[in-house]
Amino acid sequence: MCKNKIFGIRHLQGLLLFFAMVLSIAMRVNISVAIVAMTDKDNEDTFDWNMQTQSVVFSSFFWGYIVLQIPSGILAAKYGGMILITMAIAVNSAVSLLIPYGAHHGGWKALCLLRGIQGLSQGCLYPTMHHLIGKWVPVEEKGRIGTLIYGGSMLGTAIQLIASGYIADYWGWPAIFYVNGCLAAIWVMFYLFLGADSPQKSRYISIEEKLFIQTSLGQTDDQKILKTPWKKLATSIPFVSLVVVHCGHNWGFWTLMTEMPSYMKLVLDVDIKSNGVLSALPYLAMYMFSFPCGFISDYGLKKKWFSLNTCRKVSNSIGEFGPAIALIALCHSPPGDVTLAVGLLTVVVGLNAAHLTGFMLVHIDMAPNFAGIMMGITKFFANFVSIVAPLIAGLILKEQKSTCLGANSI
Fold first, then answer.
1. CATH code that applies to domain 8-218+228-396
2. CA–CA gap between residue 55 and residue 388 (Å, rounded)
3. pTM, rounded to two decimals
4. Rounded to 10 degrees, what is the CA torsion of 191, 65, 399, 37?
5. pLDDT tens digits for 60-108?
6. pLDDT digits (tens, 9 = 90+) for 115-153
7. SS3 call for 40
8. Measured between alpha carbons, how far apart are the two ends of the chain, in Å?
9. Sign (positive/negative) of CA torsion 277, 392, 252, 126?
10. Residue 147 vs residues 196, 251, 298, 316: alpha-carbon distances, Å
11. In sequence order, what DSSP letters do the residues of 300-332 get, joined into one string?
12. What 3-state class would DSSP assign to 74?
């Protein structure tokens, strides 16, 4: 009965976590467009930062981001995910409100410090999200609800890139951070009232729905905290492979994320409003493509069209090799052709949505009880790459009007 309900408490939790992803990723990527306005010499209230300095600013978020990846998975298993996700959004909200003041009075160094604090608090985001999905989402709905939640990262990126251009144009770049901070504070209030660590701790869930989730996941009311098998994880070839693919994904994804607005401005010569819209199109495509990926994944597994292993491998191949080929094509496209460049970038990022039903769910497939910790480990190593990628891009782009954004595989 509960299985067929259109909207249950598990779906409410999924929706709340979806908005958490939207807001947290928006606060992570807002600097990509904001820094275009912050360094535009044609505007007032700007900074004279070269490409190398901007690359350091882009990279600074990940200095703190790597610190809590592994500990947060352990903390989520011990104390629950609700407190961690709430603290992450609350800290990001407060820091967003402080960024304009910090940049004006402390320059790029203060901005790097504040971005590092945001990264530190967001370090628990994905491990905690995986932990909560493992507690709330039945096996039968993992692809759909998991894609909905993580799809928030693409929608948050797209909305932020579009909105930032208009906000900066009408009210100035500081307003970008003020809007983000206020919206995040509102989410925190809603989640404190409606959120829960698990079905067992929810004040609103029905007995039938709780039983359905527990039966699907093989959970009981009295769950023990299991000891993490560190040695088995370190010596597991499939898990090491998962670390490698996560690293490769981050290299391409964050190179594009941080450099695309600058590419639009310096190479394609589009204004700040058009910049945000054009930079957002690829992430809107990624968001829209994520839904058929999730549906096909769940439906195909239900109908036994393919095995779980095949589903994950095919999804991952589409999400990683497809973008790599399109990026190589971008490097050989005619300089200054805005339509072709944006079209290829849309294909690059859009196809990457398939990774949501690829390696992003493999942690839960391998070991649901340790999904948060495993995500923390893969994220830890992948985010070293996220630090390095913008810095290397800054070294390569000494000539700011380079026509090739880069052929790194997402």
1. 1.20.1250.20
2. 10
3. 0.74
4. 30
5. 888 888 888 778 877 887 888 899 999 999 999 999 999 999 999 999 9
6. 999 999 998 888 888 889 888 888 778 777 887 898 888
7. coil
8. 41
9. negative
10. 20, 21, 11, 14
11. HHHTTSS-HHHHHHHHHHHHHHHHHHHHHHHHT
12. helix
Structure tokens at 16: 């709340």
* pLDDT tens track for 369-396: 777 788 878 888 887 887 777 777 767 6
Residue 310's φ and ψ, nearest 5 degrees, are -65, -40
Q: Classify the C-alpha dihedral 144-385-90-135 as positive or negative.
A: positive
Non-local (6+) Cβ contacts of 185 within 8 A are 90, 93
Counting every residue written for the chain, the total comes to 410
Q: Where are the domains of the chain?
A: 8-218+228-396
Return the C-alpha torsion angle 133, 59, 320, 138, nearest 10.
Answer: 0
Instruction: List % helix, strand, coil for the chain (3-state, nearest 5).
Output: 80, 0, 20
Quote the tokens at residue 174.
């500081």
Angular region, 126: left φ>0, alpha ψ -120 to 50, beta rest? alpha
Q: What is the dihedral of CA 216, 136, 78, 382, to 10 degrees?
A: 100
Nearest-angstrom CA–CA distance, 346 and 161: 14
- Reading the block at residue 170, the tokens are 């009408």
Rounded to whole angstroms, the Cα distance separating 286 from 360 reads: 15
**Spatial separation of the C-alpha atoms in residues 255 and 252, rounded to whole Å:** 5
Dihedral angle of Cα 24, 327, 33, 149, to the nearest 10 degrees: -20
**pLDDT tens digits, residue range 316-369?**
888 888 888 888 887 787 777 777 888 888 888 888 888 888 888 888 788 877
Does residue 150 contact residue 360 with C-beta atoms inside 8 Å? Answer: yes
Tokens of 22: 């939207």
HSE (side-chain half, CA atoms, 13 Å) at 115:
27
Q: Beta strands of 3-123 (E only): which ranges?
A: none
